[in-house]
């Protein structure tokens, strides 16, 4: 059996290094493909590093507290029979040849761009080439960085576009009514502008509602729907969260609400909170969020529901949910009629595409086909 | 990706965006318009360090040159504010503020109070302060505490380009007189700043780092030294809260007291001279309101009680260092 090197992953375009927060497996533990073996924190988020191999954890090369560049050696997995001397030699060879990517090289990678579409600034990120393109639509109060763990993996086999909805990220902040209809029209205008005839729409939370609305308005544009913790599939939604997010302006006010987004509240880093505080200070954001929330939701009730005609909206549909979602109950994934693939991931929350990124990427890739 | 600009550019952008939004916003000061139209000069100088460069042509008639008479034009700015304008007056060095104290302390700061709330004075006075530029004792002082002392004034000391833009926009929109203190060694500092307009509310401190082992309270340029000290201490396993006050009036007492009560060990860092300073003010607040949580006497790291020396080596010794801050933390840790 070969010796497998587990290295510092690159999550998102801006990541250059990560800090080892702690080990989840001990040396000598049996590990399987998909197991999380250690926690890593970046300036954006904390997450578990998954093992891509079956075997025994033979070495913890990185120490808790170490800050290491992407690609640096974290751990070694091999079978129990591999001699220690061989593992030590492999580690030594790796460390001797390892050259961290320079910061400049990191910055020359793909960056988000901006376009004027329908009189509004739209920020988007394009990665990958070919295939039927996938378009990633974030949720309420989010932006294209909500997909930072997903962009690159999905772009390995197709063009991937992620955009900031009106009122979000670095797109223009003004909306008319803020209805799902208006947001869907802005996505259709984006598809027109970028010359995308037909795409897989992948929506998270309110972005799923927007994706379904696009499919209802322009079915010929939609190759498939992938709905992650989607709004629009049931009645309940956590109105306290929506109100708290829309009204909160300081770190202390927002943090308790943001912690509901993840099953593991420790994933809410200070930088994540700080980024949201900075977004919320931007001119026009709070007005727009209030409009969008009141159009889509009435307290704890979602106004628009596609549940009864979901199977008719698109040729194929995938639904992914975190079982511990505190914003929109995972129960909405159950009892959907028609040929719909449903995956509910245990122990994960509303931001399941971040919290269980590798698993969600695998499910999406498998669903989209190559 | 967020765009990086300098502290100086962030101030310029805040002025420009507010001038575009509200035509009552005007800029006045020495050499703001100077140089415009002279041979070989395409643009106005934009003040002594060029912070307002580019605004003169963009907003015709709204960037005014003033005589070298701070008493005169600060008075004019206060009067214009009382009559409905939103002037932003640039006063080169805060050290020259002495000749405008009546205009600031007796007029601007008192109008709202003495006219029963019927008058507002939305004036912003920008001035550079702080040591480190080899500019000697009359051009290097940190006078934040003088203005913080006066009820009716708001006092802002940004530490980053992001804060400079958001706090200046808030200052311009605020209906009270605001003294906006810019540390002269921060002008070239770069940081991520959104292109869009945004305001940072006054009285909301920024917690730059989290830690339960000690609290450092500071503001302005010292935030960076405190952060450097905290990073160094973190390598030895000592995690420190670093609180950037952002505004010394109003003061975010809640954030200071919460942290002090949690850690019980406090270092206050102030580049100013120690007597009647922000350092003593914060120390008194904590001593009075969080005394029973304290596990060690509060430490202050400040400049000594002397004028700023002109000699470079002495000036460097005069300014508090990251090393001194780290040592103070170790001292309160016991």
| Spatial sequence of strands, sheet with the most strands of chain A | 9-10-12-11-13-14-17-18
Uncertain segments of chain B are none
Largest sheet of chain B: 7 strands, mixed
Number of domains of chain B: 2
So what's the CATH class of the largest domain in chain A?
Alpha Beta
CATH superfamily label of the largest domain in chain B: Thiamin diphosphate (ThDP)-binding fold, Pyr/PP domains
Give structural notes.
- Chain A has helices spanning 84-97, 103-107, 151-154, 180-193, 206-217, 239-247, 251-258, 270-281, 285-296, 310-313, 352-355, 357-368, and strands at 4-7, 17-23, 30-31, 36-41, 46-50, 55-60, 67-69, 73-78, 113-117, 120-127, 134-137, 160-163, 199-204, 222-228, 297-298, 301-302, 317-322, 340-345.
- With 370 residues, chain A is an alpha/beta fold.
- The radius of gyration of chain A is 21 Å and the shape is globular.
- Chain A contains 12 helices and 18 strands.
- Chain A has 2 domains: 4-106, OB fold (Dihydrolipoamide Acetyltransferase, E2P), CATH 2.40.50; 113-368, Alpha/Beta hydrolase fold, catalytic domain (Rossmann fold, 3-Layer(aba) Sandwich).
- Chain B folds into 2 domains: 4-192, 3-Layer(aba) Sandwich (Rossmann fold); 206-333, Rossmann fold, CATH 3.40.50.920.
- In chain B, the strands form 3 sheets. A 7-stranded mixed β-sheet of chain B has the order 3-2-4-5-7-6-12, sandwiched between helices.
- In chain B, strand 2, helix 2 and strand 3 (63-65) form a beta-alpha-beta unit.
- The longest helix of chain B has 15 residues, at 7-21.
- Chain B is globular, with a radius of gyration of 20 Å.
- In chain B, 53% of the residues are buried.
- The interface between A and B is medium-sized, with 14 and 14 residues.
